[in-house]
Each structure stands twice: as structure tokens, then as C-alpha cells.
Specification:
Length: 540
């Protein structure tokens, strides 16, 4: 085993590429409230990169800039702005026609595309995402927004006709729910945030938006776009400690919808702070401990290819990552050997380097936390299988393949959210099934094998434990047209391009008895376009 110490010594750069350094620092003292970009004159929060430099004082994380550290009073002003835009459902945005809301969102998309270079660079600098993955995240987000527009057009087309039943004429459409608080995760600070923010907006909900704690500066370029593309108060940005600014919003009881992607602990706290949780609509993406079951007849070439990406893409910092492997004892030895070789072949370095797969981690103290997980497993009889596994330097942690993992170890139940791969040997298929049944999580799992009869026997009960089973492939969210949800403690509500539109709206019906007078009223409304809700317009 070759120690990585010598390579770690040269891991971090002496200077940034010029195209990245030219962006810095971003001293953000502004925020969007009530349709105006306002200047923050209070305390600020310094933002540092996972990338850093060695100097005479030791290792120093790269300073990127700062953002406002807002207080409760400012948070409540943002809420008041959104409530004013909602105006008990009478505001300009919630009563606007679907066609005009779409036009405004399309205008926003067009403007955001011009910010691609800067936003990709900030994904690299703020969270350590590789150049290729950062570009993919931006492009996928733009595609998602266009798909959302098309999905809303289709939804509106389905609602453009009147129904007549039992002597009642009716038209059913979807209407907004009210003021929405959107909070996204740091690992996909643009894409996953926008999978709730954009559907909420396009369905007519005013939004209070708090960017993730890592990935906050990348939104700075969008403030003028938010201001120019949406009416005053429809989107308001919030910065600072969640306890300081989010708690008061929830406690006010004036948040109608909570869209949150993060930990279950934080979600539980937020819901409990709301004085009327029975009327709070929640769309939550929470934790996951997605298992892979590798059967004895599995194609190991395929398994390793999917497993390496599934476990280590973006350093394993994904809720959909494969976080524990159950491998049949007949093939466990070969699986470990080949997985170890695949890890060794992964290039690591700075996120802007071409082809890099493993990069520094944004969360302070995370490498030390990972070391604690591994040491706990070693103390209970496990081993680190791959050469150099678990070595770390400052903000970089080299993947650790840990075997055999068993009940009682922290790696058995904790969601590591990083580059540790726990492997559990099994002989009886009931062992991994029992684990899945008893798990507090229920997002996805992967099944690897070639016997259709056995796979079918496993699929039928396991679809009642998780929301997606991936046959001979890694766990993943996409394509975005597919539903994305979770059972147990993994999620509340379902997201996809079309499901998200439904999550941030409610079916509403206008009905009238089928009398000559009512038919005349409805005909006049439609022909003269007197209503944005009652309409037979067909959007192309």
C-alpha cells in the first residue's frame, strides 16, 4: 500500500485559474425584497471554498466573499412582502393567467442562460463540484425549467374543457396554495432548489427563498432577474442562520407551503414551529440509506460500473447515492477486489481539473466525521479493503471500502453522505430484506441479478418499502419526468416535472347548474375573456 501523503502534499493549488480568480471576491451586500434590490448594512457571513492553500500559517480555505447575515426583523419583512403579493389570493401573480405566468418564467430562463459561465464557476468554487458535473447541473436545471413549462401547458390543456354531469356545468383547474418557503440542499444547490422553486412560482405562489448554506453566492447573479421577471414581492431572498431567520417565519403561522430538501431533524423542527401544522402543505426531500443487493448471478462488470458511480459520484454526497451494499458471499471476494481496483482508478484533485472524479468536501469537519465512522467499524471487526482507503488531508477524504459491516456499527444505520462504501455479506436473501424493512429510510434500492423469477419475487414486496427499484442500475433521480419520492423518513410528497406542479397547487372547481341563464353567463365569460380562471384557451 502506497501512502498518499506525498500526493496529498501537492493536492491543493498555489493559485487559482485566472478565469476563476477573476470572479472573486463576491462581497454580497444586497438582497431582494418587495421587488427591489436592497442594501444590507448589518453583519455578514464569510463564505469559504473547500479548496484552500498551504502557507506559513498552515492550511487556509479560499475566501470567496460574504453574504448578509440577516435578522428576525428582516425575515419577517420578507414574509410580509410575500403576504402582500399573495393578498389573500387576490394578488397580481396568483390571479394571472397561466399563459402570462409561463411567459414570465420563460423570460427568466432566457436571462439565466446568460449567467451560465459564472454560475458553473461558483458551483466549482463553493461546493467543490467538478467542472463537468457543475456544467451538467446548470444545463439540467435549464432543461427542467423548459420541461416544467411544457408540462404546465399540457396540464392546462387538459383543464380547458367544461364538464357537464348531473345537470351541473363545471370547469376544474389548479390554483396556487399561498406563500411558500423554499429551502434547497447544498449538494445540488441549483438543480434541486429549482425543482421546488420554479414549480411553486409558475403555479402562482409567492415565495420566500433561502439559498443553501453552501452554494449561496451563485444566486447573486440572479437577483436582478428575479426582480425584473416577477411582480414585486413574488420572490424574496433570505440569508443567514436558519434558526435566526426561518424559525420566526414558521412560528408566525403565515407560511402556507414548506418546500425543504435536507435532514429529517431540521424538517421536524420546522413543522413543529408552525402553529397550525394541519394546514401546512409540505414537500420534503429528506435522508436516505439506499441499499444495493448483489445476487450471486449478478454481472460483476455491470455491478462495478454502476456501483462506483452510484456510490462515489460527487464524492457520495447525494441522497440518491448507494450507501450500503449487500453482496452474496459467493461473489463477495471478487466484488471487493474489483471495487477496490475501480476506486484506485478514479482521478482526484481540484474540481476544475479535467476528468477529476474525487474532489474536496465543502462541509467543515466532515473528513474527521468519516474517520470516526470507519474507526467505529474497525473496532467491531471490519477492515478497510482498498489501498489508502480513509486517508484524508484537510478538506479531502479518500474513499474507504469497508467490510464486513454488521448491525451495531454506525455505518449500518447512519447516512454517511460521503465517500465511504459499507459492504455486508449475506447468504440468505432474507437478511437484506429484513434490513430494508427495519430501516427508517425508504427512498430507493438497486437489485443486481439475472434470474427474472427471483428478481420478480423481490420486486413485489420491496415496492412497498421504497419508491423506486432500480434493476441492474444505480439509484438516481432522473429522468425528471419520473416521480421522485420516498417512504418512511425519506420524503413527503412526490416530485417530478408534472408531480411538482400538482404539489404546489390544488384542484379548484367552478360549477353552476345547467340553466339557460348560467350557460349564458359562462359563455360570455369565455368569449370575452373576462376571467383568467374560467377559460377555454388552448396553449400550444
Amino acid at each position: 500500500m502506497t501512502d498518499l501523503g506525498s500526493r496529498f502534499k501537492d493536492l491543493f493549488p498555489t493559485e487559482l485559474p485566472s478565469e476563476l480568480s477573476a470572479l472573486l471576491p463576491i462581497e454580497q451586500n444586497d438582497y431582494l425584497l418587495d421587488g427591489e434590490i436592497q442594501t444590507w448594512e448589518g453583519p455578514t457571513e464569510k463564505i469559504y471554498s473547500p479548496v484552500g492553500f498551504h502557507n506559513a500559517e498552515g492550511f487556509q480555505r479560499l475566501y470567496l466573499g460574504h453574504c448578509p447575515a440577516m435578522d428576525e426583523a428582516t425575515a419577517l419583512r420578507a414574509l410580509a412582502s410575500a403576504r402582500k403579493a399573495w393578498n389573500n389570493g387576490r394578488g397580481e401573480w396568483p390571479t394571472l393567467s397561466v399563459e402570462k405566468r409561463i411567459q414570465q418564467v420563460e423570460r427568466f430562463i432566457h436571462g439565466m442562460k446568460a449567467c451560465r459561465s459564472q454560475m458553473v464557476s461558483l458551483l466549482i468554487l463553493e461546493i467543490g463540484k467538478s467542472q463537468s458535473d457543475a456544467a451538467k447541473e446548470f444545463d439540467r436545471t435549464v432543461e427542467y425549467m423548459y420541461d416544467t413549462v411544457q408540462a404546465l401547458k399540457e396540464l392546462d390543456r387538459q383543464s380547458s374543457r367544461f364538464a357537464i354531469e348531473g345537470g351541473i356545468i363545471a370547469q376544474s383547474r389548479r390554483s396556487p396554495l399561498g406563500v411558500t418557503l423554499c429551502m434547497g440542499p447544498f449538494n445540488y444547490p441549483l438543480n434541486e432548489t429549482f425543482t421546488t422553486l420554479i414549480p411553486a412560482l409558475i403555479m402562482g405562489n409567492p415565495v420566500v427563498f433561502k439559498p443553501p448554506r453552501f452554494g449561496v453566492l451563485l444566486y447573486h447573479a440572479l437577483l436582478p432577474l428575479f426582480r425584473d421577471c416577477f411582480p414585486a414581492g413574488v420572490i424574496n431572498t433570505l440569508y443567514g442562520s436558519g434558526k435566526q431567520v426561518v424559525g420566526p417565519l414558521m412560528a408566525s403561522g403565515q407560511i402556507d407551503v414548506l418546500a425543504f430538501i435536507g435532514s429529517a431533524g431540521v424538517a421536524n423542527t420546522l413543522k413543529k414551529q408552525h402553529p397550525a401544522p394541519h394546514r401546512l402543505r409540505c414537500i420534503l426531500g429528506l435522508g436516505a440509506k439506499n441499499p444495493a443487493i448483489v445476487l450471486p448471478d449478478a454481472d460483476l462488470d455491470l455491478v462495478i460500473s454502476e456501483a462506483v458511480t452510484g456510490a462515489l459520484s460527487f464524492n457520495g454526497q447525494r441522497c440518491t447515492a448507494l450507501k450500503i451494499f449487500f453482496v452474496h458471499t459467493q461473489i463477495a471476494g471478487e466484488f471487493l477486489e474489483r471495487f477496490s481496483q475501480a476506486i484506485a482508478a478514479l482521478p482526484f484533485g481540484m474540481p476544475w481539473e479535467k476528468g477529476v472524479a474525487l474532489t474536496p468536501l465543502p462541509e467543515v469537519g466532515k473528513p474527521a466525521y468519516f474517520e470516526g465512522l470507519v474507526q467505529d467499524a474497525l473496532a467491531q471487526g471490519a477492515q478497510v479493503i482498498n489501498p489508502n482507503g480513509g486517508q484524508w488531508h484537510e478538506t479531502f477524504y479518500y474513499p474507504a471500502l469497508v467490510y464486513p459491516v454488521k448491525a451495531g456499527m454506525k455505518l449500518w444505520s447512519e447516512e454517511q453522505f460521503g465517500p465511504i462504501i459499507p459492504v455486508v455479506p449475506f447468504e440468505d436473501i432474507e437478511e437484506p430484506i429484513r434490513y430494508i424493512v427495519e430501516s427508517e429510510f425508504g427512498q430507493q434500492l438497486s437489485l443486481f441479478g439475472q434470474d427474472p423469477a427471483l428478481l420478480a419475487q423481490l420486486v413485489d414486496p420491496l415496492v412497498n418499502q421504497v419508491c423506486r427499484i432500480n434493476l441492474n442500475s444505480q439509484c438516481q433521480r432522473g429522468p425528471d419526468v419520473f416521480p421522485f419520492g420516498g417512504r418512511k423518513g425519506s420524503a413527503e410528497g412526490t416530485l417530478s416535472v408534472s408531480d411538482a406542479l400538482r404539489s404546489f397547487s390544488i384542484r379548484t372547481l367552478v360549477a353552476a347548474k345547467q340553466t339557460e341563464a348560467n350557460q349564458g353567463i359562462l359563455t360570455d365569460m369565455v368569449r370575452n375573456r373576462r376571467s383568467n380562471f374560467i377559460s377555454s384557451d388552448y396553449l400550444f
